[in-house]
Design goal:
Blueprint (H helix, E strand, L loop, with lengths): L5 E4 L8 H11 L3 E6 L15 E5 L5 H15 L4 E4 L15 H22 L8 E5 L16 H20 L4 E6 L14 H13 L9 E3 L9
Helix pairs in contact: 1-5, 2-3, 3-4
The chain binds NADP nicotinamide-adenine-dinucleotide phosphate (NAP).
NADP nicotinamide-adenine-dinucleotide phosphate binds next to helix 1.
């Protein structure tokens, strides 16, 4: 246990979510996994494959909830080797010009501000060789942005910008940070594609092959190629 690497995976509450499926894959790869859920309404009952996964409640819009996550991981496990931020909410139904501002704020908080909150909280537990992955989306790319995915797309762009600012400030500590597009899969957010379990394997493979020189990049988990900002 003391030598086992610890992975924290947020947004792991739903059977079809990337977070829960990635938690399972990382477990199989030998990590001790802390998986977070906001509500237990959708949390599947634990099965044998979940052994080694510890579930902790987390609402990334609440600073005290994020601090509580830090406290529990610090007190029980002492370290965090890998943080994968998978929290997300579906794009707004209305165009950005008329969308309720509260809903836009939720997008920014869940996809971007919450990511920074969790990174700041976990950093004291991370050492040289640590890895932080922001699960982003091709929708974040300003190069191709139009009116699609209202609220969601700009919130993902902000999360990418946060990765860009964090990368140089974490370089001296030997921590790698990047944004990864997981590919598409059916969930509450996605509608098409192969199942989340396949996306989870894809993301895990990408994480395992990440080099320190790729810190500060935006990668496509499907092709392994960088995505234009
Ligand atoms: N599905 C796709 O095709 C696709 C494509 C590109 C990128 N992505 C990205 O992949 C990531 C995972 O998405 P998914 O498709 O797995 O969606 P999902 O099934 O809806 O999972 C999202 C997770 O985020 C959690 N969450 C929402 N608000 C939260 C909050 N305030 N605090 C803490 N957790 C919160 C949800 O918890 P609750 O269950 O409690 O709501 C859920 O566990 C997201 O960043 C998404 O943008 C998905």
């Amino acid at each position: 246990m003391y030598n086992q690497k610890v992975a924290v995976v947020t947004g792991a509450s739903r059977e079809n979510s990337l977070g829960l499926n990635l938690a399972r894959v990382l477990c199989q790869l030998g990590y001790f996994v802390v998986a977070t859920y906001r509500t237990d309404r959708y949390l599947p009952s634990l099965t044998e494959t979940d052994l080694g996964v510890m579930f902790i409640t987390l609402d990334v819009r609440q600073q005290n909830s994020v601090e509580d996550l830090l406290k529990q991981v610090r007190d029980l496990l002492y370290r965090c080797d890998l943080l994968v931020y998978c929290c997300g909410v579906p794009a707004l139904r209305e165009p950005i010009c008329s969308a309720p501002i509260d809903a836009v704020v939720e997008q920014l908080e869940v996809h971007a501000v919450g990511f920074l909150r969790v990174v700041q909280a976990m950093l004291p537990l991370m050492n040289k060789g640590g890895v932080i992955v922001n699960i982003s989306s091709t929708a974040a790319s300003l190069a191709n942005m139009g009116a699609d995915a209202p609220g969601y797309a700009p919130a993902k762009t902000l999360s990418n910008a946060i990765v860009r600012q964090l990368a140089p400030s974490l370089r001296d500590r030997g921590i790698t940070i990047c944004s990864v597009h997981p590919g598409v899969f059916p969930s509450r957010i996605g509608k098409v594609g192969s199942p989340a379990s396949i996306a989870a394997h894809r993301v895990a493979n990408r994480i395992l092959s990440l080099g320190f020189e790729q810190s500060g990049t935006f990668l496509d988990a499907v092709s392994g190629e960088p995505i234009p900002w």
